[in-house]
Design goal:
By secondary structure, the protein is α+β, with helices and mostly antiparallel strands. Helices cover about 20% and strands about 20% of the residues. The protein is built from four helices and four strands. The strands form two sheets. The chain has a two-stranded antiparallel ribbon with strand order 1-2. Strands 3-4 form a two-stranded parallel ribbon. Strand 3 (about 75-80), helix 3 and strand 4 (about 110-115) form a beta-alpha-beta unit. It is extended, with a radius of gyration of 22 Å.
């Protein structure tokens, strides 16, 4: 998975094998029993609590956010035709909603598909 350049990269390694647990010395085969996963908290899908956005939101940590904020109706708008660093304007969002016969209701989650990963992963971009 892509990770922002200054953040810790994802590392997956074998923490223990069955052979270790069974006391087998120098096994010819090692079968993983427990994997170890290391990653920064800003890796993959996550939620930024309000207190992450600005000091004025002190005390508004993730544990204070109601669960209703995380279980919503939602839509996905396709902007995969956009180029690298090309802005998506509010007018374009309105046009895309019309084109796809969708509407944004209060409380909806709106996903925007840019296919950035597909188009640019492992490139200079």
């Amino acid at each position: 998975m892509p990770v922002y350049k200054s953040l810790p990269q994802v590392k997956v390694s074998v923490h223990n094998t069955h052979e270790e647990w069974d006391g087998i010395k120098n096994p010819t085969t090692k079968t993983p029993a427990v994997y170890k996963l290391e990653m920064g908290k800003h890796t993959g899908t996550h939620v930024d609590a309000l207190n992450h956005m600005a000091a004025k939101h002190e005390g508004k940590s993730i544990d204070t956010m109601p669960l209703s904020m995380f279980y919503t109706e939602g839509i996905c708008l396709d902007f995969s035709h956009k180029n690298l660093q090309e802005l998506i304007t509010s007018e374009e969002v309105k046009e895309q909603l019309e084109k796809e016969k969708l509407s944004i209701k209060e409380g909806d989650t709106v996903l925007i598909c840019t296919k950035h990963y597909t188009k640019h992963f492992d490139t200079e971009n």
